[in-house]
Amino acid sequence: MFDITDTITIPNKYDIPYSVKSDLEFFMANDSVLRIKLGQKIREIRSLRGMTGKKLAEISKISPAYLSEVERGLSEVSGEKLTRIAEALGVSVGTLISPEQGGDMVSIPSPLLEAAEELGLSLSDTVKILRSVQTLVARRSSGSRVEWNKDDWIQFYRKVEFILTEEHQ
């Protein structure tokens, strides 16, 4: 088992103070909330389009049972499946993951989406990674903002992966 003392040692731009672990765990605890909101949004748009769950599942090339679980917030959805659902509904993935008016907008950078697809991450895990980095940047802001590429996101994920996998055990 990994033993954390004060700091996890990771190359400079990936240093994670021990106190950040609690922030990451907070975001992970909200996993079901993200799934429920996403599912509600999918169902809402599907209903507005006059589309049955069976028809959306068919067009999206997923099973009706799985779509039902996603809409009820019971199952994770991969980026690939979410993209197919969004296309079938005629909306962007951003529309599906953006909360109601007045909420916080989730804008996932393209390199992170590419990394998430390569790593096979769910949408909620991708959002958790984004939020954890945003928390780190807020705590360690040096004034200059560095744009990460796909490999940076993958490297960061591999350094915090143990926290994500602890939750699922």
Task: Tell me what you see in this structure.
The protein has 169 residues and is an all-alpha fold. The protein folds into two domains: 17-31 and 105-167, no CATH class; 32-97, 434 Repressor (Amino-terminal Domain) (Orthogonal Bundle). The chain has nine helices and two strands; from the N terminus they run E-E-H-H-H-H-H-H-H-H-H. A hairpin with a 7-residue loop joins strand 1 (7-8) and strand 2. The longest helix has 18 residues, at 31-48. 26% of the residues are buried. It comes from Leptonema illini. This is Helix-turn-helix transcriptional regulator.
Features:
single chain, mainly alpha, 434 Repressor (Amino-terminal Domain), 2 domains, two-stranded antiparallel sheet, 62% helix, 2% strand, elongated, DNA-binding, DNA binding, Cro/C1-type_HTH
Structural class: mainly alpha
Mean pLDDT: 73
Tell me the domain tally: 2
Total number of beta strands: 2
Detail the poorly predicted runs. 1-29, 101-105
Helix content: 55-70%
Shape: elongated
Widest β-sheet, arrangement of strands: 1-2
The proportion of strand residues reads under 5%
The end-to-end distance, rounded to whole angstroms, is 13 Å
Major beta sheet summary? 2 strands, antiparallel
Report the total helices. 9
